[in-house]
Amino acid sequence: MNGTASGVVINLNAYGATVRLDDGDLATASASDVEAHRDRYQHSLVRRKRLPFEVRRTGRRCAVSLAPQIRDEKLEEQIASYLKSTEEWEPADGLPAAERHFLRKKRRAALFESRHR
User: Fold this and answer.
1) Could you give the domains of the chain?
2) Can you spell out the DSSP letters for 27-56?
3) Burial bucket for residue 1 (CB in 10 Å: 0-12, 13-18, 19+)
4) What are 51-103's pLDDT values in tens digits?
5) What angle do CA 47, 53, 57 make, to 5 degrees?
6) How many distinct helices (H) and strands (E) make up the chain?
7) pLDDT digits (tens, 9 = 90+) for 3-44
């Protein structure tokens, strides 16, 4: 059984790491994965920070490795420049479009809640 889960590193050693997954299971991370991402494992151990893991279960044993994180700096720069270019479209005296949208949704949800009580 394979999947993804988050967990906290509870021990680092020369043979890898021990991770407590959110469902309470203990899992082992290989030494090669720990060495490749030593700073993230160390940060999780010291600060009790949750990390995303790919989990491989074989019987009662769990093995984990850090889930890949996709970061594309060029794409993020393009998104930021697009958002900056669209700021002038917003009315200067009113709410931004996203907030207006969520206000309409909130009012409509309140209307349905009042009808179904």
Assistant:
1) 2-66 (2.40.50.140), 73-115 (no CATH)
2) EEEEHHHHHHTHHHHHHHHHH---EEEEEE
3) exposed
4) 999 999 988 889 999 998 878 889 889 988 888 888 777 777 777 777 777 88
5) 130
6) 4, 5
7) 999 999 999 999 999 999 999 999 999 999 999 999 999 999
